[in-house]
Write a structure and sequence with these properties.
364 residues, alpha/beta, Nucleotidyltransferase, domain 5, 2 domains, five-stranded mixed β-sheet, 12 strands, binds 5'-O-[(R)-(carboxyoxy)(hydroxy)phosphoryl]adenosine, binds zinc ion
Length: 364
């Protein structure tokens, strides 16, 4: 079975072709990072214009790379939500038109179901039950997954998502967008114990996160540092002009390493708490922030000490991509084919705030 996946929920236009629900034949990702970099975050209007221009060539490139034609496709999967409504609508309208024109079934996929499904790409033997930590630019969620495709929400962020926090701290230091990769790289040269930034809600017995406190702490630390350097210009959420000295570079890297340490500490400790509470047999870490090398290392160590496997998709399947959407679509289609045929899919609508518990429950 060949599945065409389409993802346009935020700032990546992506199309993928999967064989048998898990073999990636093509996964084309057209990133808009250079368009949004100047603004330090995604500008919805620009994202929509870019999706409109890119969707057709990206789908064509995926078909060419997979060496198949549209007629060979058995199923189409597309992100339905959550995400930017205009961006979602572009992928959804394109996918609906294709499904209608070709007479193929169409599955609307929850974006976070897609992120978790990335762990099944190339390897379907994932131990259940598992705890999934979904950390991206828009979400920091913990789920208990008793079986593939079922999500019981254990916790979520009460304010900023972890990735959003990386992006905002990077913006304060004019490091461009997205902030996660550059913070991760510079933090390698810093001391993670240099500054103690807060780890919110650690003593509470719940499994929620809060990252706005650490972001505010970095901001006020930077204001103090800027005073030290004899300047206090903090405009449009950026610290400017930046000092120009080797000592400042070291200070900046120490700040970033200490900030990253605080975020990783919170993510790892709550995930471990979730595993202990649920007696899960594995941990999955997915979403763009799962690319973070310190998070990967620390979570792998924590899993080792608990004797549990920790599953991370390869980095290219952690950030937004259509292969994960196709994997989720293929799984849901196999479980309940009649739900996704014409004309039922004509009612599919973009849902910018779609909840994970609104995904169709799958029993296998
Ligand atoms: O999953 P994703 O591509 O998009 C959303 O669904 O939001 O995640 C993007 C987020 C951005 O906030 C980006 O800064 C963050 O993932 N990210 C990272 C790293 N690579 C990407 N955060 C920390 N460390 C990284 N290496
Ligand atoms: Zn995502």
């Amino acid at each position: 079975m060949l599945t065409l996946g389409i993802e346009t929920s935020c700032d990546e236009t992506s199309a993928a072709v999967l064989a048998d629900g898990h073999d990636v034949l093509a996964n084309i990702i057209s990133s808009q990072h250079s368009i949004h970099a100047a603004y330090g975050g995604v500008v919805p209007e620009l994202a929509c214009r870019s999706h409109t221009q890119n969707i057709r060539p990206v789908v064509e490139a995926a078909l060419v790379q997979a060496d198949v034609t549209l007629r060979d496709i058995d199923l189409i999967g597309v992100t339905q939500g959550p995400g930017l409504v205009g961006a979602l609508l572009i992928g959804l309208s394109f996918a609906k038109s294709l499904a209608y024109g070709l007479g193929k079934p169409l599955v609307g996929v929850h974006h976070l179901d897609g992120h978790v499904s990335a762990i099944y790409l190339g390897d379907e033997s994932v131990p259940c039950p598992f705890v999934a930590l979904v950390v991206s630019g828009g979400h920091s969620d913990l789920y208990y997954c008793p079986q593939r495709g079922r999500y019981d929400v254990l916790g979520r962020t009460r304010d900023d998502a972890a990735g959003e926090c990386f992006d905002k701290v990077a913006k304060m230091l004019s490091l461009g967008y997205p902030g996660g990769p550059v913070v991760n790289r510079l933090a390698e040269h810093g001391n993670p114990a240099a500054i103690h930034f807060p780890r919110a809600m650690q003593r509470r017995n719940n499994l929620d996160f809060s990252f706005s406190g650490v972001k505010a702490a970095v901001r006020s630390y930077l204001l103090d540092v800027s005073d030290l350097h004899g300047q206090r210009i903090f405009q449009d959420d950026s610290f400017w002009p930046l000092p120009d000295s080797p000592q400042w570079e070291q200070d900046r890297n120490d700040i970033l390493a200490s900030f990253q340490e605080a975020v990783v500490d919170a993510l790892v400790s709550k995930t471990i708490r979730a595993v202990e509470q649920t007696k899960a047999e594995a941990i999955a870490v997915v979403g763009g922030v799962a690319c973070n090398t310190v998070l990967r290392r620390r979570m792998a160590l924590a899993g080792e000490s608990l004797g549990l496997p920790v599953l991370f998709p390869p980095p290219i399947l952690c950030t937004d991509n259509a292969a994960m959407i196709a994997a989720a679509a293929a799984f849901r289609y196999e479980a309940c084919r009649e739900l996704y045929q014409y004309p039922a899919f004509l009612d599919l609508d973009a849902c910018p705030n779609l909840g994970i518990s609104e995904t169709v429950s799958v029993s296998t």
